[in-house]
Amino acid sequence: MKNxxxxxxxxxxxxxxxxxxxxxxxxxxxxxxxxxRLISSxxxxxxxxxxxxxxxxxxxxxxxxxxxxxxxxxxxxxxxMVENDSIFVYHALGGAYNPSQRLMRQALDSFCNPAENxxxxxxxxPLKASQNQKLQETVRAYYRAGIRFDLYxxxxxxxxxxxxxxxxxxxxxxxxxxxTSYVRLDTIPYGVTTDDLFLHPASRLIRRxxxxx
Length: 213
What we know:
alpha+beta, two-stranded parallel ribbon, single chain, endopeptidase fold (from Nostoc punctiforme)
C-alpha cells in the first residue's frame, strides 16, 4: 500500500512540476465562446454544496483518471458555493497549478475552463437544510485554515487533503460521519477516489456537459 501511494505521489510530482514541452495550439474563439454559453446555461440550476467534476486534458489529469476505482470520466473535483450571486468552486489542487498548495476558491468559469478541460459534471447529495449549512461552514473553515494539498494522497491525515478527500470529508462531516463506511482503506485505490463520489448511490446527476472542439 505504501509503495502504491509513493508511486502515485511521485508520478504526480513529476508531471505537475514539469513545464510543458511545447505551447498548446490556441483554442478556437468561437468554440470557446459557445462552451462558456453552455456553462452559463445551467448556472441557475446549481446550489451551494453541489459537487463539480472536470476532465482535464493534460498529463496530470490523465494520470489522475487512471487512479479512479471504476469510472475514469473525471480527473478532479470540488464543491460549489453560491456567494453574492456569483458561483465559486472550492477545491484542493497541487503542483505547478497552485504554487501555494492551499485550498483554492475559484470562479466557476475559470474552474471549468474549456481550453483545459473537455467535460464537466455536477452531482448533488440529498442534504437537509441543516446539513447543507454545516457543509458550507465546513468548507469555509477548511479554506480559512489554509488546508494544503496532500502530495502523498494520505487519506488518514486531516491537515493536508487531495481533491476527492476534501470533498468527501466535507460532506461526511455535514452528515455526522454517515458516509464513513464507504471509505476503502484495505484496497487499491486507497481511501476515496473521484469516482467514489459521483457513483455513490445517493449522488444525483444535475448536469453533465461535454465541450465543443
